[in-house]
Amino acid sequence: MDWERIKRKLEPIVKTRITLSELPLKEWDKLATTQPDSEKIGKSMRIKDQLYFLLEVQADAVVVFIMEHTAFTSSEQQLIELVLDAYLLPENSKASSTISEEEKTAQLVKEWVDRQLALKIKEAILPELLAAKLSLSSTKIPLLLYGGYSDSHTVSYKELKKLLESFFEADIILIPLLDKEWLILGSESLLTASEGEEKESVEDALASICSGLYEMLANEWVGECHVTIHYPQESLDKSLLQVIVEMRDTMRLGKMFYPSETMHLPWQMRLEKLLNVLTEAEQQRYVSQVLKRTNQSPDAEMYLLLEQFFELDCNVSETAKSLYVHRNTLLYRLDKFKQETGLDVRNFNDAVLVQVALLLYKVTKRK
């Protein structure tokens, strides 16, 4: 084999960056379901009459050498792959041998999710090979975990999976997503395991799972974290991408509207999801119109009183007890609020208006 002849053929070829939207995605997915991106570096793929030699994988694009497939013999093509592999990935090639097949599959799923979202695709069917490797035929309970650990802290896939399976006392599927973000797929049997003597609703059982997971991670793992959960899912190969998008949205809204909370439940975010559609100007205008305080912020004491009042289902006696004030004192403050705004929160319609205004105020005051 004449290496000098190969080098002369390569001289006019330059690196090309191709966005995922320009790449024949179906062809790329054939390769994407067999090995992680780190193991595809240096490998070639024929698409129609061209050879693509992969040099680098980015979030929304790939960097490749592109050449006519007839320019090289099969032996020359393999030699180029070996040279690229040796120069581009000397460390990763060693590390990859220590990664289990399970972790490699999880990495492939992550890369598939990244590619779909980079193309702004929010609903797609997971490739059959990946779905088979994950064993998604049974109903799964999806959870999303975001770790609050420092950037210098490295979390081991193997150790985290072992910790989670010890907690759930069952096998789970663990998939790394964004930095510090993990997707957990648990068995439907977790629902029955979380039930006590009395029959719980699905929401209560899911909340119990989520709460228990948070407590364990906060105490046994690396401290503060955020968790959310989704309703049990059948045929997750068809809905996985949509579920991830929905859970990310739930966690984002939870952090936005309730920054002090660490557990975010989707059925508690329905109103917040609707309000988030409003523009910032519309949110601020609504707050000023309802509270009629265009030049100042709502009184902090009144703000706390109203939040507690709504949390206790507008029960005057329970609210007074929780705030350690006399019932008549509470009624006086509610009457004062009515005089200032024209809204009586003991009336259902007015209470709804004020609760929405308080939710929006929490968001707009931080902007």
Architecture overview:
The structure is a single chain. This protein is of the alpha+beta class. 53% of the residues lie in helices and 14% in strands. It has a five-stranded mixed beta sheet, with helices on both faces. Strands 1-4-3-2 form a four-stranded antiparallel beta sheet, with helices on both faces. Helix 13 (280-291) packs across helix 17 and helix 15 (316-323) crosses helix 16 (327-341). The longest helix is centred in the last third of the chain and has 22 residues, at 236-257. The protein starts with a helix and ends with a helix. The mean pLDDT is 83.
Strand content: 5-15%
Order of helices and strands: HEHHEEEHHHHEHEEHHEHEHHHHHH
Mean pLDDT: 83
CATH topology of the largest domain: Alpha-Beta Plaits
N-end to C-end Cα span? 65 Å
Structural class estimated from helices and strands: alpha+beta
**Gyration radius, in Å:** 27 Å
**Total strand segments:** 9
Shape designation: elongated
CATH class of the largest domain: Alpha Beta
Poorly predicted sequence stretches spanning 5 or more consecutive residues: none
* Count of distinct structural domains: 3
Fraction in helix: 40-55%
Characterize the main sheet: 5 strands, mixed
Strand order of the largest sheet: 6-7-5-8-9
Continuous helix count? 17
**CATH architecture assignment name of the largest domain:** 2-Layer Sandwich
